[in-house]
Write a structure and sequence with these properties.
alpha/beta, Rossmann fold, globular
Length: 277
């Protein structure tokens, strides 16, 4: 059993029915599509306020897991819960107020400003066709300031670079005032400066974050814990220092690697030496 799954069971054994289960959890979720098993019994229980990285090769199930956690897909078996209640039993508006999702890339054909996009984060908090409230405007301003976009509020969305657009999507998510933030490969197509800038921003937020990443060294630098998927199953989970080993690189990624503690604060650094024949 992965240590993530063990943690879920251990916590349940201690608390039992006496205390509600807090936060977002995946309890042995599986997902089939077109007759193929994409996820197989995955458990995930992020600690409140932590950043959990979901790692794995292409096709390992990372994006599917994020979509299950967001309630955009339904598990074939198992359950995703929010404070102990299955997502499917909660009103969509309730889920949207708690969970914010940032996809790999976003685009629009509509002429929107940066502020317009960030205001979309307030939709779950407003009734249809009602004007923005003072709370809405406060949340939008706070999100723009937190992401350093307040000076660009009136700039057209389509004039921004890829890194700037991702930052706007983070601001939109923050305007939701979520307690959980889910991000699917947010650093894709960004240069290293924007990758570091974006992850520093994300991990500094006062929310519980689950982020799918390809870059193992970025995960080692910024994540409190990592979960590694392979062929839809959790094959390792724990701190980056415990999980990111040369043996894991060989078994999961099929590469030779040297792992040292050269990273910031003694975190692991992976140096790739070549592929395995």
């Amino acid at each position: 059993m992965s240590d993530t799954g063990a943690a879920v069971e251990a916590e349940g054994a201690v608390s039992g029915a006496e205390a509600p289960v807090a936060g977002l959890r995946a309890e042995r979720v599986s997902r089939r599509a077109d007759g193929r098993l994409i996820l197989d019994g995955v458990a995930l229980a992020p600690e409140t306020g932590s950043t959990v990285g979901v790692l794995g090769p292409n096709g390992s199930g990372k994006s599917t897991l994020l979509r299950l956690l967001a309630g955009l897909l339904t598990p074939t078996s198992g359950v995703v819960t929010l404070d102990g209640t299955p997502l499917g039993d909660l009103p969509r508006r309730t889920v949207a107020r708690r969970l914010a999702v940032v996809e790999q890339q976003s685009d629009t054909q509509i002429e929107l400003t940066v502020e317009d996009v960030v205001r979309l984060g307030r939709v779950p908090h407003r009734r249809a066709w009602t004007p923005a409230s003072a709370d809405d405007e406060r949340a939008v301003r706070a999100a723009l300031e937190r992401t350093g976009l307040d000076a660009r509020a009136g700039q057209p969305w389509h004039t921004l670079s890829g890194g700037e657009r991702q930052r706007v999507q983070i601001a939109r998510a923050l305007a939701q005032e979520p307690r959980e933030l889910l991000l699917d490969e947010p650093t894709n197509h960004l240069d290293i400066h924007h990758q570091l800038d974006l992850l520093a921003l994300i991990t500094g937020l006062p929310v519980t974050t689950v982020v799918a990443l390809h870059d193992l060294n970025l995960a080692a630098m910024y994540c409190d814990r990592v979960v590694v998927l392979s062929a839809g199953r959790v094959v390792a989970a724990g701190t980056p220092g415990d999980v990111l080993t040369a043996e894991l690189m060989a078994d999961v990624y099929g590469v030779r690697a040297a792992v040292s503690s050269e990273g910031p604060e003694g975190r692991p650094h992976v140096r790739f030496l070549g592929t395995l024949v």
